[in-house]
């Protein structure tokens, strides 16, 4: 969510800079927009990693249940 807000803010700043002719504002907006895009991508990767972790935990739990609950006793 934070990535979308930063991206939108950056787009607005960039347009404002273009309209007013202020290169600094345009550059800051472009930078903020790219930061927002990066945050969105990081968020998507985080979601995928969490999904994969949950799947692996479920598989591990099933394997442990099938094997009888853990390491063999001596």
Please tell me about this protein's structure.
With 74 residues, the chain is mostly helical. Helix content is 86%, strand content 0%. The protein contains 2 helices and no strands. It has helices spanning 2-20, 23-67. The chain is rod-shaped, with a radius of gyration of 23 Å. The termini are far apart. The mean pLDDT is 91.
Question: What is the element layout, followed by pairings?
Answer:
Elements: H1 2-20, H2 23-67
Helix pairs in contact: 1-2
Characteristic key phrases:
86% helix; mainly alpha
pLDDT under 50 segments (min length 5)?
none
Gyration radius (Cα, Å) is: 23 Å
How would a textbook summarize the main sheet? none
- Fraction of residues in helix: over 70%
Total DSSP helices: 2
Helices and strands, in N-to-C order?
HH
What's the total count of β strands?
Answer: 0
Class by SSE composition: mainly alpha
Question: How many domains?
Answer: 1
Distance between the termini: 53 Å
Quote the beta fraction. under 5%
Short description:
By secondary structure, the chain is mainly α. 86% of the residues lie in helices and 0% in strands. α1 (2-20) runs antiparallel to α2.
